[in-house]
Amino acid sequence: MDIVDFNARWLQAWSDKDVPALVGFYTDDCVYKDPQTAAGITGGAALRDYLTGLFAALPPTLYTPDETWPIPGGYCGRWYAAMGEGGSAGRMRGFDLVILRGDRIALNEVYVHPLPA
User: Fold this and answer.
1) Is the Cα torsion angle 28, 31, 34, 39 positive or negative in sign?
2) Range(s) of the domain holding residue 50
């Protein structure tokens, strides 16, 4: 698998707030964790519900891939996000741990850091 391409397509779906496309990147029994869901979300249906609510609360956000590093069973990827027009609502740097099963994400842990204006 070309992890750079996979990561870029996945982050584009985040930028597009395309819940069906995003859920399609994950296994049906996936585990997803981010700072707001530290205990984690399990399963595609729960992830779909979470993303629907999250995207309704977020301003338009552009996710830009930065680097990816292959690891056993998947990859780690760093990205930047600009929220609102040109980052007017904030900017952050993020890092994902992605464990794959075949060509879908079985585990995704997200770490984010706010960036100065």
Assistant:
1) positive
2) 3-115
Cα separation, 92 vs 76, in Å, equals 17
Cβ atoms 75, 4 nearer than 8 A: no
Q: Considering its fold, how many domains does the chain have in total?
A: 1
Residue 73: strand, helix, or coil: coil
Q: Over the chain, what is the mean pLDDT?
A: 96
Quote the CA–CA distance of 87 and 75 in Å, as a whole number: 27
Identify the CATH number of the domain in which residue 60 sits: 3.10.450.50
Q: What is the pLDDT of residues 20-72, one digit of tens each?
A: 999 999 999 999 999 999 799 999 999 999 999 999 999 999 999 999 999 99
Q: Which of 110, 105, 90 is nearest to 35 (CA)?
A: 110
Question: If you count them, how many residues does the chain have?
Answer: 117
Using CA of residue 94, residue 92, residue 56, residue 84, what is the dihedral sign?
A: negative
Cα–Cα distance between 75 and 14 in angstroms, integer? Answer: 18
